[in-house]
Amino acid sequence: MHATSANASGEAAADRHAAVAYSTDAEWADHLVSLVRAGFDQGEQVQYFADATAPDLVTRTLVGRGIDATSAVRRGQLIVTTAAETYLAGDRFAPDAMISLWRQAVQAAASQGYRRLRAIGEMSWGTRATAGTERLLEYELRIHHEVFEQLPLRAYCFYDRRLVPPDDLEVLAAAHLARSGSAACPGGEPALSVAPLAGPPGFRLSGSAGWENRRVTASAAAALSASPAEDVTLDLSALDHLDVAALSDIARAALRRPSDTPVRIVGAPPALQRMLELFPELGAGIATAGR
């Protein structure tokens, strides 16, 4: 997939936020070493956010594969921290706080002379019953436009198949415009997926938006309402089904947005037009266009 937006180096935002899935410790180590080595070679600061992995195992694995992680830590090019100190700081996950943290981290890396920040984060914390983890999909959707289109940042979300349920992994991987290794096809397309648009600010829903997929629709609606962009597009051209509850989530999210500009819906299925005729109050914050 390709994006139309790029940072100063010409790299598309869509290529700088990737899902990486693995099933074994050996796969984890291969991904870790490859990504850290590439970051060092490109003059980047590398931060690793550990969760299921002990932080000292990260550095020991790098050293064992011929990377001088000890010196890198000493000079500040490698920082190994934990999800508890980053994603879950404050005992809960809050997308806005994490987005702010990214801005601070990128600024700090630049002030130390690094050309860019490279981050690797274990996402297994999202499977635990911790406050705010239900907002993980919303976060993965938002950061394409709110972070990667604006900042010199490259990030890899590490998803361990042994810890993340298959259905959750499918949906979360689909929210990334880039996927590495086995995350390219984690187990089949989910019944409903949502991803950021590679071009204009907005999101694309694919599949069937019914009651059984309400949590995915709710996350898409939350990302829609939180978007700071003045104009937002919602692409429904790949949607097979949209029920009234899903439309209601979208319509209410459109009304909650900080901008007064209606959400532009493209590829609206005929059923949506009929529902808007039956429930005109749902159309106050949206403007539909043809397929």
Features:
5-stranded mixed β-sheet, Rossmann fold, single chain, 291 residues, Transcription Regulator spoIIAA, 9 helices, 2 domains, alpha/beta, disordered N terminus
Describe the overall structure:
It is a single chain. By secondary structure, this protein is an alpha/beta fold. It folds into two domains: 1-188, Rossmann fold (3-Layer(aba) Sandwich); 191-291, 2-Layer Sandwich (Transcription Regulator spoIIAA), CATH 3.30.750. It is built from nine helices and eleven strands. The strands form two sheets. The protein has a six-stranded parallel sheet with strand order 3-2-4-5-1-6, sandwiched between helices. Strands 7-8-9-10-11 form a five-stranded mixed sheet. Strand 8, helix 7 (214-226) and strand 9 (233-242) form a beta-alpha-beta unit. Helix 7 packs parallel to helix 8 (244-256). The longest helix has 17 residues, at 25-41. It is elongated. Mean pLDDT is 91; it is low at 1-5.
Instruction: Give the tally of β-strands.
Output: 11
- The CATH level-2 architecture of the largest domain is identified as 3-Layer(aba) Sandwich
Q: State the secondary-structure class.
A: alpha/beta
Total of domains:
2
Rg over alpha carbons: 20 Å
From the 3D structure, determine the CATH topology of the largest domain.
Answer: Rossmann fold
Mean pLDDT rating: 91
Count the helices. How many?
Answer: 9
Note the overall shape: elongated
Spell out the CATH superfamily of the largest domain: P-loop containing nucleotide triphosphate hydrolases
Major β-sheet annotation:
6 strands, parallel
- The residue fraction in helices comes out at 25-40%
CA-to-CA gap between the ends? Answer: 21 Å
Low-confidence stretches: 1-5
The side-by-side strand order for the widest beta sheet comes to: 3-2-4-5-1-6
CATH class of the largest domain: Alpha Beta
Strand/helix succession: EHEHHEHEHEHEEEHEHEHE
Strand content: 15-25%
